Amino acid sequence: MVKDELILKLLQELNLQRPKYQKLLDYYEGNHKILYEKPKVDETRADERAYFNYCRKTVQNYTGYLLGKPVNYSSKSGNKEFLDMIDYYFSHWEKEHNINLKQQTEIFGVAYEVAYINTDGEFQCTHFSPLEMIVLHDGSVDRNVSVAVRHYKVEYDDAEYVDVWDDVHYSHYTKDGNKLTLIEQKNHFFSRCPVIEVPNNDLKKSAFEDIIRIVDMYNKIHSTAGNEIIDHRQAYLVIENADLSFEEAQKMKENGILLVPQGSKVYWATKDINGAFVKDMLKDWQDEIYIQTNQVNLNENFQSNTSGISIRLKLQELENISAIKESIFEKVLKKRLKFFCEWLKLAKNKEYDWRDISISFSRNIPVDEKMIADMVKELYGLLPHEELISWLPRVTNPAASIQKLKEEQDTMNLDQIGDSNG
């Protein structure tokens, strides 16, 4: 059982880290700095604030590119029963969970997955952000989580709650100041702490952390230009030979009329604004956003008939980053399968080796399906059939597809035998 002193120390560290993660969440949700800056001194001038949420766009692009298509599982030993178990217990929750978990890692740089047994008595996983969870590692090379602490509140409930997982127990507390009161404690289902830390990269850095200041600048330039147009500040009204006080001029502006002495001269002095300069500057900032995030502006650089190979070449930097993200996420999926195998052994008396499962990802981009199909045909007999079938983008369960094909072929053979005997 984890001591209260350690729990409180971890909660203190969680509070210290919260402002950093809250800022990242704010930018993802569209609560940008420009919206909360002090209003301008001259209240008569427009002060509209525009923001462009490249932060959310970056997160969605990374997540959709890597996990827009379901993860494929295949068995190295051809264990169809194990694959059926994975499909049966994962299919109704895993795809949405993976996407939400990946979005959390892209926003905050790190997130946490918790394996648990749901109300139906089945294995399932959920996720938490570093705004509410903090972990302690066991000091091993694998950096497994030994203690995880979650601090949260429930809607319409003033109480504060703390959940703690360690290598043996799940404990549920209430928190009042620095006092913890244990409400419930029970053994969890797993051989060690069932919490997995999911980093976004080796630095645990948000996908858009490096572009926040660029986004702020982009927002400010757009807002300033917009207010110039709204206020007609590209031109100033000049009144010559008229003795007017500021109050009189202000009143005429508000009423939309001009009353000046005879012989006065009224005209516009227009600004010489280099529109091309502003446009080029905005374009430079936008390009820098895409460069810093290793992405491509698909709205600008692609035509409708661009081939899948051409798109992959343009997305090479994104592909390089995604390959790193994929290796990290694959490790998380392997740990998830290990917990799943522990549950199957205890709950269903079924013993499987999680190492037997291979995991493959399909990029969510247009592909040349005919070319892939031709490649599968050419390599038939040189590689395992199931592995070749997993290359086809429309197939999500290669083993099940092979089994259905075999059943259909057996049925057709029986029908042919029946017809020949008839």
Please state how the strands of the largest beta sheet are arranged side by side. 4-5-6-7-8
Tell me the number of strands. Answer: 12
The biggest beta sheet reads: 5 strands, antiparallel
* SSE series: HHEHHEEEEEEEEHEHEHHHHEHHH
The CA-CA distance between the termini, in Å, is: 74 Å
Low-confidence region ranges: none
- The average pLDDT is 86
Number of helices: 13
Beta-strand residue percentage: 15-25%
Helix content: 40-55%
- Rg, alpha carbons: 30 Å
Name the shape in a single word: flat
- What multimeric state do the chains show? single chain
The helix/strand class is alpha+beta
Organism: Saccharococcus thermophilus
InterPro entries: Portal_protein_SPP1_Gp6-like, Portal_SPP1-type
Protein name: SPP1 family phage portal protein
Structure, described:
The chain is an alpha+beta fold and 422 residues long. Among the domains are: 210-294; 369-422. It has 13 helices and 12 strands. The chain has helices at 4-29, 54-67, 80-90, 94-108, 212-230, 246-255, 275-292, 298-301, 308-314, 316-347, 369-378, 385-390, 398-421; strands spanning 72-75, 110-117, 123-128, 133-137, 145-153, 160-165, 169-176, 179-187, 195-199, 235-240, 265-270, 357-360. The strands form 4 sheets. Strands 4-5-6-7-8 form a 5-stranded antiparallel sheet, with helices on one face. It has a 3-stranded antiparallel sheet with strand order 3-2-9. Strands 1-12 form a two-stranded antiparallel ribbon. The model has no long low-confidence stretch (mean pLDDT 86). It comes from Saccharococcus thermophilus. InterPro entries: Portal_protein_SPP1_Gp6-like, Portal_SPP1-type. This is SPP1 family phage portal protein.
